[in-house]
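Batch job 17 of 40 flagged for manual review because the log was empty.
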Amino acid sequence: MKFIHTSDWQIGKTFSFADDDTLGALQAARVDVVRNIGALARQEGATCVLVAGDIYEHETPERRTLHQPMERMRQFPDVQWHLIPGNHDADSPEGVWARLRREDAVPDNVHLHTCPQAVQIDKAHNTWLLPAVLKRRHTLSDLTDYMNDEVTPPDALRIGLAHGSVVGFSNGQEAEHNPIALDRAKQAGLAYLGLGDWHGFCQIDARTCYSGTPETDRFVTGGAGGGETLVVTVDGPCAQPVISRHRTGKYIWRKLEDIVLTNGEDIEALEARVRGINPDNPSVVMAWLEVSGLLGVDDLRKYESVIHTRLQSAVACLRITGAPQLAAGAQDLERLDASATVKVAAQELLQMVERGGEEGAVAREALQRLFLFWHEVEGAAA
C-alpha cells in the first residue's frame, strides 16, 4: 500500500510582515501546493492522500478561500483525499466542515472524516483509516485513545491519522493541549500513524511521523522547516513503513543572523550568500537578515544600492532588521559639495555623534540620512 501523508496546509494564512504583493503570492502558493501534492500522488502511483488536519488557517475563511483547496483536489479524480480537522479548523457546529457540507462543496473524491471510527479506504490492501477528530481547538484528552480498542478485520492494515502534540516529544514534558501518546502506534497495532501540527518533518519512531507543512511558512536558520510531503509505502500490517520525503513547496525561507558589515566586500559577500540559497531562481527566496556594522560613506551608499535595491528586487521577500551605521569623520564633510549651511549642519551632527549617548545615536541616523540624500541629489544632477 502506497499513500501520501501531508498536513498543515493553512489555506488563508496571513503574514504580518509581508506587503500586499508578497502576501498575495504566499497565499496563492499555499493553494497551488495542493496541485503539487496531487501530481506527486500520480507520479508515485499513490491512490490515497491523507491530510492530518489544519487544511485551513481559520474556522471562518472567506467563501473563495473555503472552496479553493476543494477545487484543486477535484482536479485529481483518480486520487482519494482523506481529511481530518486540526486545531485551526476544528469540527465545530458552524465551522469550515459544516460549511463545506452545507454549500455542497466537497468533491466525490474528497472524504471528510469527522467521526472517530475505522473506515476502509482501500479494499485491495484491506487498509483501514483510524482518524482522531478535534471538535474544538484544544482538548486535554488524547483523542487517539480509542484506536487501541477499535475493531478492524483480521490482517487489516491499520493507519492512524491525528493532529496534536506527542507527549514528551519536544521537551520531555506532557503536552498541554491535544496530547498524543508517544507509543500510540505500538499500543493500537498501527502500521503507520500520520501526524499534523508540527510544521517541519519529524519522525517520532519507525511508524510515527509528522509530515510538516507542504509549503514553508516561517523563517528558519538552516535547512529545516517544511516545504515537503511524505510518500509512505507499507507492504503489510507488520512490515516497517518506507518513508520518503519529497519537496512540494515553492518558496525557500531562510534567516541569516549576526551579519556584520564593515566594508564593500562584506556587502558583496552578503548578496552572494542570499542569492546562493537558490542560485537558479532567487525569486523564490524569502530572506530575513539581521544586520549590524559600521560602513563608510561610499560603502553605506553601496549597501543601499546592492542590498536594498538590487537584492530586494531579485528575491521574493527581503526582511531586514537592524542596519549598518555610518562611520563618518571630519574628512567626509569635505566631500559634501554643498552649501555652507549643509556643511555646518553636517559638522554639528558629527560633533553630536562623537559625544555619544542617546542624542548621539539620533544624530548618527540623521547624518546618515543627510549623506545618502545628498548622494541621491548629486546622482540625479549628474
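Reviewer: the log was empty due to a logging misconfiguration, but the result itself is present. The mean pLDDT is 89. Unflagging and moving on to job 18.
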